[in-house]
Write a structure and sequence with these properties.
The protein has helices at residues 9-12, 60-64, 66-73, and strands spanning 16-20, 27-31, 36-38, 45-47. It is α+β, with helices and mostly antiparallel strands. It has one domain (6-73).
Length: 81
């Protein structure tokens, strides 16, 4: 059986971070599995600055599962709006 690494804990059990919108000062809630989040007030998009192990680990698909792996690897230029 494949044992999961501790580095992916914040992906399997998402953590919440509060960022401040640089445009309007509104609080923006972004989870560790989100690549980006738009401000509810002005629409400015903030990005998650945590580099995910999914970007570089060869075992990432096994560790986090297909659904989350595909979500995190999705190309933002081709993502559905």
């Amino acid at each position: 059986m494949f044992e999961r690494c501790h580095g992916a804990d914040n992906l399997r059990r998402p953590t919440l971070e509060i960022k401040v919108c640089p445009e309007c000062g509104n609080e923006i809630e972004i989870f560790s599995i989100d690549k980006e989040m738009a401000c509810d007030k002005c629409g400015f998009v903030v990005y998650n600055d945590i580099r995910s192990c999914v970007d570089w680990c060869k075992y990432a698909r096994l560790c986090v599962g297909d659904e989350l792996y595909n979500k995190l690897k999705k190309n933002p230029e081709t993502a559905e709006q």
